[in-house]
Amino acid sequence: MTNITRRQNGTLLIILAGIFWGSMGIFVRGLTDLAKFTSIQIVSLRLTIAAVTYTLILSFKNPKGFHIKGEDIPLFLGLGLGSVLFFTTCYFTAIRIMTLSMAAILLYTSPIWVMLMSLLFFHEKITGKKLMALGFSFLGCVLVSGIGSSQSSIPLIGILIGLGAGLGYGLYSILGTIALRHYSTYTVTTYTFTIASVGSLFLCSLPDLWHKITVCPRKPYLCIFIILTGLVTAVIPFLLYTLGLSQTEASRAAILATIEPMVATLIGVIVFHEYLSFTSFMGILCIVGAIILLNLHPSHRKD
Fold first, then answer.
1. End-to-end alpha-carbon separation of the chain, Å?
2. How far from the centroid of its chain's Cα atoms is residue 290's Cα?
3. How many domains does the chain have?
4. DSSP secondary structure letter of residue 231
5. What range defines the domain where residue 200 resides?
6. Which of 218, 187, 14, 246 is nearest to 111 (CA)?
7. Under 8 Å between Cβ of 18 and 173
8. For the chain, which end, N or C, has fewer CB atoms within 10 Å of the first or last residue's CB respectively?
């Protein structure tokens, strides 16, 4: 019964994380309109705000949490550079060289990577229910994205970069699960985002970023919006996801997180008055169906 309760709590936390991630379009469009930031500059701002916030939280909550073992430094480098910074850079690069829908589909190959890596590293069972939920969630992402509406060819490098985004995104679940065996959620997120933030500063054209902030005519509003972007699209969802990851399997968490494109689609309809097609609606139903399927517990089975 305790394990079932933990799994339910983990499910709720990960779904909430996906909802916050799904709101990213509001902030990306807002920052682009306000200061014409590039995609990687927005990524860098998100990561930096998250790093500062997590550092403050850990300082007040548990200052001893800053202590990590030397042999675990490669693990945190993998989380910060190999996962968070790598997948965000790949994802935004993919967006520039292919359609948004195709980039999103390649990003959400992540549950497939997580399931394979979970089998390899954690010996998690690939059950029929997981495979069915994975199929529903991936089909839902395909339908929600509207893939197939464009006949333009996609370069091989674009596909590889997009798959890299999915691999890096999935790697967070694997490395995060390992790190959470020895460290608190706050220690994991603090080191992950501090390392990712430092790495992003080498990619974002820092002088140009600072110039765009200083010349913006609505500087106070811009600063508030930057802080909200970091809090809503990075700090809160990654904290929720990491907490949820400590209470449920990595492969399950990755599938649950596919609620993000569904939320993004609904926000597009409600906030930006975008058209909701029948295929997108069916995609939403598939994703919801995958989440429901993952949370069905046969009464005769002990968890």
1. 7
2. 18
3. 1
4. I
5. 2-294
6. 14
7. no
8. N
**In this structure, is residue 108 part of a structural domain?**
yes
In a domain, 130, yes or no: yes
pLDDT digits (tens, 9 = 90+) for 91-140: 878 877 776 666 777 787 888 888 888 888 888 888 888 889 888 888 88
Residues ≥6 apart with Cβ < 8 Å to 243: 10, 13, 185
In contact, 191 and 80? CB cutoff 8 Å: yes
Tokens of 37: 């930031």
- Of 235, 228, 83, the C-alpha closest to 165 is 83
Chain mean position to CA 56: 22
Average pLDDT over residues 268-281: 80
Instruction: Count Cβ atoms below 10 Å from residue 95 Cβ, excluding itself.
Output: 20
Tell whether the model's pLDDT for residue 175 goes beyond 90.
Answer: yes
Provide the whole-model pTM. 0.81
Contact 154, 96 (CB under 8 A): no
Q: Is residue 205 part of a domain?
A: yes
